[in-house]
Amino acid sequence: MKIIRKITAVVLALVFALGMSAASTAADIPEPEITYNAESNWDGTLVIDENKTVLISGVTHENTGSTPGSAIRICGGAVVNLVFEGNNVLSANSDYVGAGIEVEEGSTVNIYGRDGSTLTVTGGKYSAGIGGIGFNSASATNPKAGKINIYSGTITATGGSRAAGIGSGYHSSASEINIYDGYITAYGTGCGAGIGSGYGTSGGTPRDNQGNFTGAGVGFYNGGNITISGGTVRATSATGGDFSFDSFDISDPSTYPAQNNHAAGIGGGYGASSGNIVIEGTAVVTAIGSSGGAGIGTGRGTSKVANFDADNADCSVTIGGNATVTALATKDKREGQSPEGGAAIGLGRGFAIEDEPKGTIVIKENAQVTAVAESGANGIGSGRCVGSEVLPAQMEKVEINKPAVVRAQSDGTRTPVYEDATNITVAFVDEDGTELQSREYAKREMPECTAPTKEADDWFTYEFSAWSPEVVPVEREATYTAVYTATPIEYTATFVDENGETVGEIAYTVNTKSITPPAVPEKEDCHANWEKYTLTPGGITVRPVYTEYEPAVVIDDYEENFEIGYKDSMIYRATAVDVPKGAAIHWFVNDEDIGAGEGIGVEEPTDDYTVQAKIIGKDGSVLAESEVMNVTVKKTFFDRLIAFFAGIIDAIIGGTLGEFLGGIC
Question: What's this model's pTM, rounded to 2 decimal places?
Fold first, then answer.
């Protein structure tokens, strides 16, 4: 018997995927060289005096030691990348001089916060939350704070007594503060600015009876170079547990607490100049000065008295880019205190410059500024003075460039109030830029435009849904673009039989990638398929396509010339396709039809023969036939001898040896 072989090939494919972790966002946060966490916290002050990247992760640290009381001290001219993750709290010892994060003059700290992380920093006596330490001496030799760069993260910084939240301590100037991004909240304490300098000095310019200079006077210290170019920044001089930005209503200054602070929100502490303040980019800034300090600018001065020159401080503020700035200067609400205060943006209370104007304020195009002075000072410009013997300071330059949007106001007792009253053009356009309406509106008027329509196309209907961006009261030139909601149109694919009768319907839209059609109606002796179709607008009708059978038959393991042993019995099988109803496979041995079926056996042949399979229809016709297989039977003496002994072995195994021998005798 012939053994029919099946060969199964198994192919194994190995696919290797190379994965890369997503890079961190932000200007990219540097990789730390050393990590401190809750388990590896340090004792006293962590001193970093070489260039290094340090990660603090979930650290709560209060320096309970004495001098210096800083939690972290960056010194020796080092440039330090300080990265934080999780929730971190750093506190200096409030009884000793020391910052939460001290940055010595000549050194630099770059602060990065990973997503969702917070850093809360509190300075000690006379020292900033982040920045310099202070000195209980108005000496001209007091060093400045070092350079502070903030790139990301949620940070709350609170100064110690008489110090800035971010910047310098008591009797010291800030150096350079850059805020690029993040959510930053800064509280000054006891006459320190939120961001900038600590308490400068409360006197004028000290001189002896001969008029000789004897020390650092009002305006000597300053907030340094402060640049805010991104993120959300909130800064104020009010702390002491009486104030929190999170609960304060900026639109209602009367809710501001009564405190003895006298410092700017951003800029100078009491008696200090503003430094050079630049707010630009996409920064969103809120700054509140109190008790005579400007919202953004200088702290409070004094007034001319014996042995003191006129208070003299410089103020430089530039607001540009697409920055949004809200500045508020609140009056001194303590009982019995003079209510005069500082400008919202500009000079604090009590600065008098008799010889020449000093200080500049520039608001550039596209900035949005709200400046409110609660205490009778200018919204933008100079503050008030106590008493009538000293004139208020005059600004050298106040420049507002269109189309900057500026709202500046006081409580009605001071002028000028800067307001751009010019009508502003607002345009409405369709989504393709076609102008629908363009006209001028008065400032804060609400622009309106009739909702446009858009005709349906092959696949969608459209309905107007909104203007982008959202329409708001007019503050600057604006263009609003129509936005439509698109609703897909539903169509039907109809499947019919060859007589046009519906056999199935399927809905589809432009979003339909494919559909599952119904079964094709059958037709005898034919292949049935649906015609090719594409889901097109308007709906489609799909018809069946029939192809008549093409019968075919093949002998399995066919070989045209095949040789077998003497009396080797064989089984032959065939594979047929497209066999019509009523037809069958017939086997022909030596051209003689020996029966129908999928297979046929040829028992113990002793002579050559041929094998062929044919498909015979029910009417007797030949519909298909296979190739003829020529089988040669080996008939030599040895072939017969082998067959003889094979028969004996089979008979022994089968218990029919007697019958076998009887058959050959």
Answer: 0.61
